[in-house]
Amino acid sequence: MRAEDQIKDTITSNDVVLFMKGTKEMPQCGFSSRVAGVLNYMGVAYKDVNVLADDGIRQGIKDFSDWPTIPQLYVKGEFVGGCDIVTEMTLSGELDTMFAENGVSFDKDAADKIREANA
Amino acid sequence: MAGRAEKIEAKLKGAFAPRVLEVVDESEAHRGHAGFQEGGESHFRVTVESEAFQGLSRIAKHRAVHEALGKELMGEIHALALTVRE
Predict the structure, then answer these.
(1) Distance (Å) from the alpha carbon of B59 to chain A's nearest alpha carbon
(2) Ranges under pLDDT 50 in chain B
(3) Which one of A66, A80, A83 has the shortest CB-CB distance to B63?
């Protein structure tokens, strides 16, 4: 399958997808680690795609999203952003709202704890 | 030849006439990590605040900055932590 088709297939068959360097259990980059850490801590069920395991996907996701960096978060097939945007949205509460609106379950208390720790 | 921090500053000044612009080379903090280049200039933290971003979504703001920096410069630097405000 071409990288683009593989990406489309992944983001349509999973509600939440994180394209990252490494895996959710063992991230290989600080930026990927930060986003995976937020999702893990908030108890979000998500599919992790390790771009380091596939050069086609690594370049393909940058072209597909028109976004030059990894990690990249997708929710319900829509590109949300990279590490900086996800961090901002976590702290502002927008990430909670977006998950709620898309029927993605998450631990609200955990999200509040992240915000308290970074207030 | 200007360093990358100066190039980043010049490009963002030219594109957005920002009221706040901070470009910090954080490369040394990433010594030993992936993408570290001897001599630094690999990891940057940039804060840019400009009226030019008014009304744009978060993604659009970041894309505007990526575009202003250009593919070549974006390709040279390993990491860019970006805060964009209106």
Answers:
(1) 6
(2) 1
(3) A66
Which band of pLDDT confidence, cut at 50, 70 and 90, is reported for residue A70? very high
Q: Give the pairing of strands B43-49 and A78-81.
A: unpaired
Nearest CA distance, A43 vs chain B (angstrom): 24
C-alpha span between A49 and A58 (Å, rounded): 10
Domain locations in chain A?
Answer: 3-117
Q: How far is A100 from chain B (nearest CA, A)?
A: 19
Four-way CATH pick for A3-117: 3.40.30.10, 3.10.20.310, 3.90.1150.10, 3.40.640.10:
3.40.30.10
Omega of the bond leading into B18 within 30 degrees of 0 (cis): no
Residue range A18-28, pLDDT digits in tens: 999 999 999 99
Strands B79-85, A72-75: pairing is unpaired
Establish if A59 touches chain B: CB-CB under 8 angstroms. Answer: no
Does pTM top 0.90 for this prediction? yes
Query: Token match 């600080």: residue?
Result: A30
Chain A residues in contact with B34 by the CB 8 A cut-off are 21, 28-29
